[in-house]
Write a structure and sequence with these properties.
Helix content is 65%, strand content 0%. It has six helices and no strands. Helix 2 runs antiparallel to helix 3 and helix 3 packs antiparallel against helix 5.
Length: 139
């Protein structure tokens, strides 16, 4: 059975990438620039590295420029964040308030497996043939 939005798959993927990349970059902007209700924490190496990964990675994911690699690094950062920050307060994400880190981690892992997609900077620069897309399984 065909999924209801299957014909819109590339557009929905692009929208997901844009929203996730933008929100992720906002977390980085908080750490790097002290905006959006955050505090700049450039004196803490962990926060500085996290802020750079989040801001730059989020922008790359959003626009679809080497999004697969950026998402792979972002996924790793979110796994590290979960286990070094949230898991100290209990293993389960619902208890330790780490749901967002877990969701980001696995969505970024998905993006890293799929690449930038058709509607992306990579798609414009390199064309569809070099952009990883999900193709239906052979019968």
């Amino acid at each position: 059975m065909k999924a209801p939005l299957a014909s819109w798959s590339e557009a929905v993927y692009c929208l997901m990438r844009l929203v996730l990349g933008f929100t992720y970059s906002c977390h980085g902007a908080q750490k790097l620039f002290g905006v959006l209700g955050g505090h700049a924490s450039l004196g803490q190496p962990r926060d500085l590295i996290g802020g750079i990964i989040e801001f730059v990675g989020g922008v790359l994911i959003a626009v679809g420029l080497q999004a697969g690699w950026a998402a792979f690094i972002a996924s790793g950062e979110m796994a590290v964040a979960y286990f070094t920050v949230h898991a100290r307060q209990g293993f389960f994400p619902i208890v330790n308030k780490g749901e967002l880190a877990v969701v980001y981690c696995f969505i970024f892992l998905f993006i890293s497996s799929r690449g930038s997609g058709l509607y992306s900077v990579d798609g414009l620069l390199f064309g569809r043939s070099s952009v990883s897309t999900v193709s239906p399984a052979a019968p």
